[in-house]
Amino acid sequence: MPDPRLTGLGSGLFCAAVMVALGFLDQLLFGTSSTLYGVLFLPVCALTALWVRRGELLRAPVVVPIAFTAGLLPVAAGGEGVLGRLVGLVTALATQAGWLYGGTLVAGLVVIVRRLRQVRQRRRTAPAQRTAA
Questions:
Q1: 54 part of a folded domain
Q2: 103/92 Cα distance (integer angstroms)
Q3: How many domains, in total, are found in the chain?
């Protein structure tokens, strides 16, 4: 498994690009299955939280809802024109809020676990550095 370390902006771009691609793929293959889109959102959230750099861990739970919304544009069924698409997007966000909250929770939990491991590792190395000095 690759171990990239993305910046906060890079993780947001990664997540948004993948979700937009999955949205178009979902619309092309399955005719806008919003449940499938929501299911695919969960592993993307986990990968985004796993691949963000340690110094920018808190950005992952922030960028995943934005990416969910960006990818929902091709999936959302709407009417003609800008207003019709906007109404379709808002309706899709309202009906798919469970997936949105679930993905954000997944990203948040991964970030918390990574942060706890980072703090634990720092505490282990701190006494060793004091005794060596």
A1: yes
A2: 16
A3: 1
